[in-house]
Amino acid sequence: MTTAPKQPITDVASPDTPVRKNLIDLGDIESLQILDTDGVADEAFVPRLDDEALLRVHRAMVLTRTLDIRMLNMQRQGEMGTFAPGIGQEATQIGQVHPLRSRDWFVPSYRSFGAQLWRGWTIEGLMLLWDGFFEGFEVPAGVNDLPFSIVIGSQVPVATGVAMGIRQRREKHVVVTNFGDGAISQGAVNEAFNFAAVYKSPIVFVVENNGYAISMPAEKQAATKELARRGPGFGIPAIRVDGNDVLAMIVATTEAVDRARAGEGPTLIEAVTYRMGLHTTADDPKVYRSDDEVDTWKPRDPITRFEKYLIGKGLLDENRIQRTGEECEQEVLNARERFRERAVANPREVFEYIYDSLPPALQQQKREYLARLDRKGVR
Amino acid sequence: MAQMNMVRALNKALDETMAADERVCVIGEDVGVDGGVFRVTKGLLDTYGENRVFDTPLAECGIVGTAVGMAIYGLRPVVEIQFSGFMMQAFDQIEQNMARFRRRSRGRFPVSMVLRTPYGGGIRAVEHHSESREAYWAHTPGLKVVIPSGPRNAYSLLHASINDPDPVIFYEPKAVYRAFREEVPDVPDPIEIGTAQVVREGADITLVAYGAMMRPTLEAVEDLTEMHGVDPEVIDLLSISPMDTDTLVTSVSKTGRCVIVHEGPRTCGIAAEIIARLNENAFEHLLAPIKRVTGYDIHFPFFQVEKHFLPDADIIVDAVKETLAYE
């Protein structure tokens, strides 16, 4: 005796309706923009943030860009390792972590200065890690963030696992993880989507569609224009957000975080943004895109757009914008001093944290290594 | 004490650790309702429910990656990968995250989890179901690699692995799963991961093996003692990483001769590592070149001919006789 399939395939249509429908009908993807490029807000959707909170968001975006530019200078002068600037993506960055509480979790990709600073990572810590000092990977006390993994998309299953753990323990925390348009092609990311949906895990996936995976334009990365469309196929609600509109990012992420906290499962947010600068400091974008193309994105700059809005609200003026810029510059320079004080390599710690306790063969290798340092007079 | 096969012994260890520690979760394909394709997780779903026993989607990379996240969150996942040949799908998550997170997070997020998987040949299986690639994981910093050889040590080692603070790859010799029964104690023996076991003391030559290869090795020992008057010492490695160099060196320093048996490919295999360590630490005691009896450096053959590929007692006896004849 065979058991009948749960849903006989003939049930997809009743006999008197035609079986064939549109071959591909994925429905509509909701999209969200609150601020237009002139900084004019659709007041119906503006998040309820008081003046101080709005200015704090502005300052965080300015600080992020200031750090990026300063580190680019440092890199060009030989004082910084190769790193991945995020100029142009500040709204996406700040918006995605804005609704998180300290006991929530953030699992970043490596291009996440803004979000990491917002979460409590220090500027000097980020400088240290990008300049090759392992001390920079120290997760700040009280911050539930994972240090990033460099392999594209490899953090997304881990982030999902954290969310599965939260759900398993019946706790109310939420995970936000981000990755780029390149990562959307990775099997690991798609497997993570499926696990998150199947286990209704409290996680928000933010795909930062910044137009390029190094040289590969997003339209060649995926045959669908809207990466958010990946969501519904997995049973994950998805939204396409203007990633250069910080208010839209805050609203979309807040809704997704609230859903997750309420036990309603994951959300996919596609933040449509643009990498104004380099992939990394080792990259030359002129090889694969024109200055004209970059210029078309300048009027959509997330910081100037938000400034126009705040000026319109009477919260900012040119003087205040200049003062904020100077304050951020000073903050970064102060942090650079702390970075310089701490930028002393410790070659003696490379055997730390490999295992809970070092096995005998590794103890032997450690002794050999330390003896080698001693012979060379390396402290 | 009760007589049981390795499947039952592993099941007993899982049941006991889950009962003792609510952080322990079993995760994998078909581990719930089905009880695992080899039935190692049988009954656990009924006892502990869906919140502790995860029947997962069919995606090894997703299974290992999410288990790492669960371990970071403080659970103790025991992952089952249905066959070790499917671990390649998860290679990236094992290497990037499972093995590295303690280090990457500077000790903040250790990954205490176990990845159980049946390995090895001898069960007349299709392609990708007979591999023995433990060397990959021994080559990966941050992992421990444990391989039991019988019900009793499987039971105790699985207990130890689940309670270990580091990620453990736990290779189960599927050819041994139901091959024989053994007395298994009510509480685990205190075997420390990284400690080999001298299962027979002898004076003439040291035989080193682990996992499924312990059986042909012990068969060879029977033949050698009864038919050839040889008195071999036999070491069951139990843990590939960390490896118990001391026990190996002590034994070979005494016997002066050594044959190593494994079914994985020869080149860069575990035997090569053992030889290197003996070369470093017991060179002046060696009376003969150390011999390897291993799988060949070829893809595991289709099962009609696997018996010619896998090391057997005859070829081990030959290797021992050659080593003893060397002057």
Structure description:
The complex is a heterodimer of chains A (379) and B (327). With 379 residues, chain A is an alpha/beta fold. Chain A is built from 13 helices and eight strands. The model of chain A has no long low-confidence stretch (mean pLDDT 93). Chain B folds into two domains: 2-184, Thiamin diphosphate (ThDP)-binding fold, Pyr/PP domains (Rossmann fold), CATH 3.40.50; 197-325, Rossmann fold (3-Layer(aba) Sandwich). Chain B starts with a strand and ends with a helix. Chain B is an alpha/beta fold and 327 residues long. Chain B has a seven-stranded mixed sheet with strand order 3-2-4-5-7-6-12, with helices on both faces. Chain B has a five-stranded mixed sheet with strand order 9-11-10-13-14, sandwiched between helices. Chain B contains twelve helices and 14 strands. Helices cover 36% and strands 20% of the residues of chain B. Chains A and B meet through helix 5, helix 6 and helix 13 of A and helix 3, helix 4 and helix 5 of B.
Write a compact overview of the structure shown.
The complex is a heterodimer of chains A (379) and B (327). With 379 residues, chain A is of the alpha/beta class.
**Structural domain tally of chain A:** 2
Helix content of chain A: 40-55%
Write the H/E string of chain B, N to C: EHEHEHEHHEHEHEEEEHEEHEHEHH
Q: Main sheet of chain A: which strands, in order across?
A: 1-7-8-4-3-2
CATH topology of the largest domain in chain B: Rossmann fold
CATH superfamily of the largest domain in chain B: Thiamin diphosphate (ThDP)-binding fold, Pyr/PP domains
Task: For the record, give the distance between the C-alpha atoms at the N and C termini of chain B, rounded to a whole number.
Answer: 47 Å
